[in-house]
Design brief:
Blueprint (H helix, E strand, L loop, with lengths): L2 E10 L8 E7 L7 E9 L4 H18 L8 H23 L4 E2 L1 E7 L2 E7 L3 E6 L2 E5 L5 H7 L5 H6 L19 E5 L6 E6 L1 H4 L4 H10 L2 H16 L6 E10 L18
Helix pairs in contact: 1-2, 6-7
GO molecular function: protein serine/threonine phosphatase activity
Protein name: Serine/threonine protein phosphatase
Length: 265
């Protein structure tokens, strides 16, 4: 059965004075069936974080426009997008005297293949129906403690250093990137990219259920509303992009008017 894409990008400023997140779903300007989803969570004082996150989107858009699947691998395109954004964010320090940084999570959708990459603690979730298949592992101090068994998952939720990142775009050190890819997927699969202003309020099961039971747009609205309520007046910026693969019926072939089928011998 043919597969259609149901996608939506959404964000909310939360209770912050400024929206420093950026989110976009970008179609390739020349190649049908190719699109790039991006979420960037900026940090760095007034306007600095917003400029950093905007640079991530700008660089990703430029690299997507020049992406030629026959000549460049998806992973190389994603890595170049993040590495170039890192360089430009670092350079902006000398212009605006700020200390801008940004996370990044990107998903490149092509016919028969999905590739993603991330830097920092903005996440990508992959669901099949209402079940989690995988999610990215945050480049954060708390995730490191969790992976080494020094704290539990419950302790990670309230750890005082849960916002400390081990890598980001625009920092003094070279950023760390992680990549993954899927070539087998079907209707009912879904991908979610989001900043910590969203995922901090949900476990995997609840998020999967909301996405499986709703359109991409309705799921965005529900998740943002719940995150806002749970933030209790102290919520962070929220950004997310949802890409659902939906099975659709193949169009029926209607014979032209006056067509008379030949009798079989």
């Amino acid at each position: 059965m043919p597969i259609a894409i149901d996608a939506c990008a959404a964000q909310h400023q939360g209770d912050r004075k400024e929206q420093q997140d950026r989110v976009a779903i970008l179609p390739h300007t020349r190649k049908k069936g190719i699109a790039l989803a991006v979420v960037a969570d900026g940090m760095g004082g007034h306007t600095g974080g917003a400029l950093a996150a905007e640079q991530v989107i700008h660089t990703a858009r430029n690299n997507l426009d020049h992406f030629a699947p026959a000549d460049e691998s998806p992973q190389v395109m994603l890595e170049n997008s993040m590495r170039e954004a890192h360089t430009m964010i670092k350079a902006s320090r000398f212009i605006n005297e700020k200390d801008p940084h940004s996370t990044a999570v990107m998903l490149l959708l092509q016919p028969g293949k999905v590739t993603w990459a991330h830097c920092g603690d903005s996440r990508l979730y992959r669901f099949k129906g209402n079940k989690l298949v995988s999610r990215t592992v945050d480049h954060s101090y708390v995730e490191h403690l969790l992976a080494t068994g020094r704290i539990t998952a419950e302790q990670a939720l309230t750890h005082p250093n849960r916002n400390v990142l081990l890598t980001s775009l625009g920092g003094q050190d070279e950023p760390k990137f992680d990549f993954a890819e899927a070539e087998s997927f079907a209707g009912g699969d879904a991908f979610v990219l989001c900043s910590d202003g969203l995922w901090a309020y949900f476990d995997d099961e609840e998020m999967a259920g909301v996405i499986a039971e709703n359109s991409a747009r309705n799921a965005c609205e529900i998740l943002i509303e719940r995150a806002r309520n749970r933030g209790r007046g102290a919520g962070d910026n929220i950004s997310l992009a949802i890409i659902k693969l939906v099975e659709v019926e193949a169009p029926k072939v209607v014979p032209p008017v006056g067509f008379v089928p030949r009798p079989k011998n």
